[in-house]
């Protein structure tokens, strides 16, 4: 009876472990991790469970929490990962963010959504439309539409519009109405 209780106690103690990720295999439908639990225990090919729609490839050194079925160290699954080095801090209650180790993030803050490209371009792909349903759209930089065929930015077009002239020929005095010709500038 005591042997059975001791065996049960060992299984309970071995049911969870905390370790450090040393290697990630992200080539299959289920991600497999190699996790160092202690100086003597390196567990390979541990499947990782992630929330549907959210995926990541945690960098080496990331903390992993492993659950072991019946305390069997050969039958584990990573149930959580965390990396304090790259974790975003200072979020208020209820705020959410997704982020990586390059400084890129989408931050659902109490003041609004903040998308940070981390110094990299932000690309929208395979979208027939991008709709901005807002009364005011602000852009700190310049805007270039039809960029594959157009080289003039909105600011450049505004400069042409603000400085262009319309020559008026055969001016007549009196009560006649004078119409201008087309502008002389291109665009």
Which spans have pLDDT < 50 for at least 5 consecutive residues? none
Span between termini: 92 Å
CATH top level assignment of the domain at 2-82: Mainly Beta
Structural class: alpha+beta
Mean pLDDT: 90
> Using only CA atoms, what is the Rg?
31 Å
Q: What is the H/E order? A: HEEEEEEEEH
- Overall morphology: rod-shaped
Q: With helices defined by DSSP (H or I, 4 residues minimum), what is the helix count?
A: 2
Helix percent band? 10-25%
CATH topology (level 3) name of the domain at 2-82 = OB fold (Dihydrolipoamide Acetyltransferase, E2P)
Q: How do the strands of the widest beta sheet line up side by side?
A: 3-2-1-4-5
Strand content: 25-35%
Can you count the beta strands? 8
Query: What is the level-2 CATH architecture name of the domain at 2-82?
Result: Beta Barrel
């Amino acid at each position: 009876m005591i042997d059975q209780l001791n065996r049960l106690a060992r299984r309970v103690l071995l049911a969870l472990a905390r370790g450090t990720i040393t290697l990630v295999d992200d080539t299959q439908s289920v991600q497999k991790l190699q996790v160092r639990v202690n100086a003597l225990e390196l567990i390979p090919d541990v499947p990782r469970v992630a929330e549907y729609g959210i995926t990541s490839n945690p960098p080496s050194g990331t903390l992993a929490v492993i659950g072991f079925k019946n305390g069997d160290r050969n039958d584990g699954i990573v149930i959580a990962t965390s990396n304090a080095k790259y974790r975003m801090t200072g979020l208020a209650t209820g705020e959410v963010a997704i982020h990586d180790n390059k400084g890129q993030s989408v931050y659902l803050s109490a003041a609004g959504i903040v998308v940070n490209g981390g110094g990299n371009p932000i690309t929208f792909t395979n979208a027939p439309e991008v709709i901005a349903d807002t009364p005011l759209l602000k852009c700190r930089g310049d805007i270039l539409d039809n960029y594959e065929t157009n080289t003039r930015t909105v600011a450049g077009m505004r400069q042409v519009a603000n400085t262009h002239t319309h020559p008026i020929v055969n001016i007549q005095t009196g009560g006649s109405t004078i119409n201008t010709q087309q502008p002389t500038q291109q665009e």
